[in-house]
Design goal:
- The complex is a heterodimer of chains A (126) and B (144).
- Chain A is mainly α.
- In chain A, 65% of the residues lie in helices and 0% in strands.
- In chain A, helix 5 runs antiparallel to helix 6.
- Chain A is elongated, with a radius of gyration of 37 Å.
- The relative contact order of chain A is 0.05.
- In chain B, the strands form two sheets. A four-stranded antiparallel beta sheet of chain B has the order 3-5-1-7, with no helix packed on it. In chain B, strands 4-2-6 form a three-stranded antiparallel beta sheet, with no helix packed on it.
- The chains are: A mainly alpha (126), B alpha+beta (144).
Chain lengths: 126, 144
Amino acid sequence: MHEENQQLDELPEALVRALKAEEATTLLVPKSVDQAVAEAAHSHFQQLTPRWWTLPATLAACVLVTVVAVQLVRSPDLKGDVDGSGQVDVLDAFALARMQQTNSDIQTADIERLMTRIVSLEEPST
Amino acid sequence: MKKTTAFFASTLLFLPVLIGAQTNVEFAVLDIYVDSQSQALAAWQFELLDRNGHMQVVGVENGEHAAFDHAPAYDRDAIDQSQAERIVVASFSLNQKSQLPTGSTRVATIHVRLHGNPDYQLRLVNAGNHLGDAIPAEISLNKK
């Protein structure tokens, strides 16, 4: 505050008078303007009131999401179903090996990994 | 004293027989055949288990045809750890159609250790031709 007053003392006197006069002015919002703003806000937020169908729709969406999630968890791991038969077996490894003949991106290690998985006793019976 | 000695002697004499009767361990060799009839067999997969739970797989050999002269795929770790009470075996060949077997072919030989009478369950998971199409085929086993 002291610094502020010191700075003001260094300015031209006319400017200082004008600035002090500005500080003294009280900004008033007319009552009519204030009321208009309040009414507009009230009207706006009243439109946001939930419709009667909002709760049932929300519940239905939750149920749908839950059902989909459960189905995804239950689905067998069909990664490796190269031939799209619905099960992962030797024909998928065979298909991958045949694809390798024309696609150098397919590694032999990928085929071996798939075969290892197919015959693994840790995998559920196909 | 003589009776006691005779008793112990007879026990020692018959002890191996008694032990053998209790454990009844034997080894068996099973030849697995896949009959693809007129279709060329390019890929196959089967599962073998014993419904009585008396079987343990101790080894797997490849089959008779040149197209499958390489070792088939199976869970080696489970066999090495003597934990293979069932086994899944699979193999494929990228040979041309003319170089693939047709009809009945011995695709693998399974060596098993048994500690009781087995009730084998053999299931052909899938068989395919040179195009990768699933083909109808029959599977059977022959105990040597």
